[in-house]
Every structure is written in structure tokens, then in C-alpha cells.
Amino acid sequence: MAVCYLDMDDEITGAISRIRAVTDGEAIIVVPPGSRIATSRINFRLLAREAAERKLNVAAVSDEPSVRALAISAGLPAYDSISAAENALVSFREQDRQLAARVGGVPPSVRADPTSPRDAAGTTRVMPIPPQSSVAEGTAVMPAAAEPAARRRRGRRLPIAPLLVLLLVVLLLGGAAWGAYVLLPTASITIHPATSQIETSPFTVTADPNVAVVDPEAGVIPAETISLPLHAEGDFSATGIQARDTRASGSVRFRSENTLNAVPIPADTVVSTADGIDFVTTDAVTVPKASFATGPTTADVAVRAVNGGTDGNVDAGTITELAAVLRAQLISVRNPDPTSGGRHIEEVVISQEDYDTALASLNEQLGSALTAALADPDSVPRGLVAFPATMQLGQATPSQPAESLVGSVAPSFTLALDADAQLLGVNEGLIDEVGEARLRAMLDPNQQLIGDQVVSSHGPGSAVGERIVYQVTARGAGYSDPDVQEIIASVKGKSVSDAQQALARYGSAEILVWPEFVDHLPDQAARISVIIEPPVSGT
């Protein structure tokens, strides 16, 4: 038994050359995926015809169900493994032996006769080759030139011989046809399993910020803490009033008539107007001694009003009062010029109330800033769903402390407030992982899911303390994977229509029988191949 491995790029001529090189009567043709030969049914027809002409039992092997079906439809038995093909060829060999015994002990070695009739599949029927041992020893071989005369003599002596030969040929052909009908059929069955909806009972999934990995069995997935920086800023008016008075200033002139001594006048000496507005000297001064020759002496010194306000603005010559001790020393005082600069001033300042009002307004703006941040898709990491109900606002920090602003003279001021808000976010895609794991765990041993089409449906989730809780249901499309041996046992030997009915419980089935005129499936399990075509996503 020869095994011929084809290459993907081999042409049909190369495959036929492989068959022609086989000498032991049996061959397995291994067709690789993507083979050029597997692109056309006529290629398999040519291989089957070459096998028949060379008296070979040939089977094809391919991993691809479509290639096997194509080979079978062309009259070439096909299997999914070399071992299955070897078992089938052993069975074919035994059936050939039994067929030879039924038709009179004729050995299985035959030759193709171009003039022989063809069966329903288009394959040339083959004529037996008499074995050399059937020629009696010592019998002379008739020369070609004497053959016509000898034929005439035999015709006269044995006129019934042609009829016997014809009868033998008919018997052989009939036996071969009957044997092919009984022993040679093969069948290929393709099952498309029926699909059904599989659904879990409702279950709970909890998103917890204290876990790092998904735990499908416990129904726990990670939650993430999202930090959102918030900023609020505004300009605010100052409403505080600060009043202040400036003190008037000027100068006074002390006059001395004391001819005995110079009179010193210390700083901060009080001098006044007749109506009681006091001034003090800002520096010390000494009034020189007067003389009879030159007369009184004077000394000027700066003064400043004791109290602020406009009352300190007095006219010239109005500051005339001084302490009695100075008068006793013959000292008098007078302002040669008016005093000036005394004013009452009221200024707008930032009060503590202004500062507190600004902080309250900025705290309200932080709430609006949080709402805007949650609405901004760039604020929340992609893939996470934020839960404002879990939001915790950190300590807000003003841009300037109260002590740096309160009491400052200004009609308005600017203040900003910054804070961090923290809230929980959940990657809800992880819920699908838990749902798929739960759904797969509840499958029966022979059940399969179709692709990855598991859909988890859940509500929006609710905040419970520092966790988010979901109510979840998972569902997906699935099918039951039928047992191949059970399928073969249920259909072997049955008619195609009965087999179709038997296979209905597995889903839809396609049955291909070769030769095509055979209406029953083989009795032998080795001649029946079963292909399970799992449903694909989207069908």
C-alpha cells in the first residue's frame, strides 16, 4: 500500500504520475490544504479513471470536508485520516477477493478495454486477463498468418463458442456491476447542528476598588478610582469702608524777651489755638537770649496737629497758646503761616465678609465644574463608566489666604479655588467576561457555544457604599455536538430518504452517495464519513 503526498502546487499530471508509479495495487493520495488539484471536480474524476485503468484501489485523504465531498462526488473515496483510508482499502481488498470468488475464481488482475461498456458513473468497465497458467503446457501458439484459417476451422467445428464467450462476458460484467452496487458504495454525510439560545439565571456582579483581577466564580470585577481636578475662579467687589484722618502740619515761631537766658524748647512741646486745637513741635529748638540793644529773639520750628482731620487746618496767627512755664520765661508763640494737610479720608477695603462670600460662591462653582468634567469625554479614562454618586470632594485650597487680602484697600479682588474630586469608575466590559465564564460553566458536556457571541445584559449599576453592584444575565447561541459513531449507527444500510429522516434530530444534513445511482447507504461503517460543520457566528 503506497501513500502519495501531494504538494500544494502539484498539477493533475503530477498526481497521475504518482499513481502510475504505484506497483502494489493500492494507493492513498494525501491532498494538502490549498491544493490546486482540489479546486476542480474533474481532477478527481481523472484520478479515479486512472486508478480504474491501472487496476488500483485508490482513496483520497484531506483535512478539509469540502475537498472530501468533492472527491466523493467524483467517484473517489475520501477520508479525513490516513488510518481511516488504510482501513477502508483493507476492506476494499477483501471485497475484491469475495467478488472474484463469486464470479468464478477470476483473479482481481484485470485490464482496461477501450471498447468495453461504461458504467453509470462513466468509468470504463474492465475485462479479465486470463492467467498464463490457464494455457496448457506444450500447446503451440498459432502464428498470426494462420489465424484466419484456424478461426474458420474452429467456426465450422465449434459454432457455439462465440455464444459462450459472449455469455461469459455478460456474466462477468453483470457480476462486476452487482459487486460494485453491493460492495463499492461510499457515503459522505455533512451535519449542520441545530442552534439554540442558552441563558443563565440572573446573578450579581460587584465592582470593588479593592480587587485587581476578575473573579468570575465570586462575581467580582475591579473598580477604579478616578481623580478629577476642579478649578473655580472669579472677580469679587470689596464692600468694606476704612476711614482715616491725616494731621495738619505747619510751623510756629517762638519769640523771647528774656534778656537773662536763652530758652530751650524741647520736641513735642504743645502749642494751641485759642479754641483748643493742639499742635506739637516735631523738633527741639532753643530761643536765643534777648537784649536791650537788639530787642527780642525768635526761633522757628515745625509743628503737627495732635489730632487728624480738617480741624488742624488753622489760619496764620491763630496758634498763640503755650504752657505757663514758657510764658514765665517771657516766651510767646505764633504761626506765621496757615497749617494745612489735615484731611478726613474714607477708603474701600476688602473685608472678612467679602472674603467669606467669595469662598462660598467658588464652592458652588466647583459643583458646576464637576458636572462639566463628567460631561467631558476626556475627563474620564476611555472605557470607564463614572458614578457621580460615589464622588468625594477633597479639601479646597484658595489661591490667597484671608490674611493677605482682608483689610487691603481695593475696589475688587480676584480669588480662585482648587480641589480634587474622587469617584469610582467601572470597565463594564469586564462584566461580559464574568457572564461568558458563567455561561460556559453551565454547558452540558456535548454543548458548544457559537464563536464568542456571549451577550451580558445588565442595569446601570447602583452604588452601595464603596462598591458598584450590577444585576446581570448572560446569553449566547449554542449547539449540541453530535456523536459521529452514533450518527453512523443510525443511518448505515438505510435508504437516503430514511437516513435523512434519522438525521433530522441533529439539525440539517446533506448526504452524498457514490456511485450516484445507489439509493442506499453502505452497511459498512468504514464506507461512511461524517463531517460536523459547526455553526459560525452571524448565521
Question: Can you offer a commentary on this structure?
Answer:
The protein is an alpha+beta fold and 539 residues long. Strand 3, helix 3 and strand 4 form a beta-alpha-beta unit. The chain is built from twelve helices and 29 strands.
Question: Regions with pLDDT < 50 over 5+ consecutive residues?
Answer: 105-158
Strand residues, percent: 25-35%
> How many helices?
12
Secondary structure: number of strands: 29
Q: In total, how many domains does the architecture comprise?
A: 4
Proportion in helices = 25-40%
Query: What general form does the structure show?
Result: rod-shaped
Question: Structural class given helices, strands, pairing?
Answer: alpha+beta
Return the average pLDDT rounded to an integer: 83
> For the report, how would you describe the main beta sheet?
6 strands, mixed
For the CA atoms, what is the radius of gyration?
60 Å
Chain oligomer state: single chain
Q: Alpha-carbon distance between the termini?
A: 43 Å
Features of the shown structure:
single chain, 6-stranded antiparallel beta sheet, 12 helices, rod-shaped
Topology:
Blueprint: E1 2-5, H1 12-20, E2 26-30, H2 41-53, E3 57-61, H3 65-73, E4 78-79, H4 82-102, E5 110-112, E6 126-128, H5 147-157, H6 161-183, E7 186-193, E8 195-199, E9 203-208, E10 220-222, E11 224-237, E12 240-246, E13 249-256, E14 263-265, E15 270-273, E16 278-281, E17 285-287, E18 297-305, E19 319-322, H7 324-327, E20 331-334, E21 343-349, H8 352-375, E22 385-393, E23 397-398, H9 402-405, E24 412-426, H10 429-441, E25 447-458, E26 462-464, E27 467-480, H11 484-491, H12 496-503, E28 507-514, E29 528-532
Parallel strand pairs: 1-2, 2-3, 3-4, 7-29, 9-10
Antiparallel strand pairs: 5-6, 7-28, 8-27, 9-27, 11-24, 12-21, 13-18, 13-20, 14-17, 15-16, 15-19, 16-18, 22-24, 23-24, 25-27, 26-27
Helix pairs in contact: 1-2, 4-6
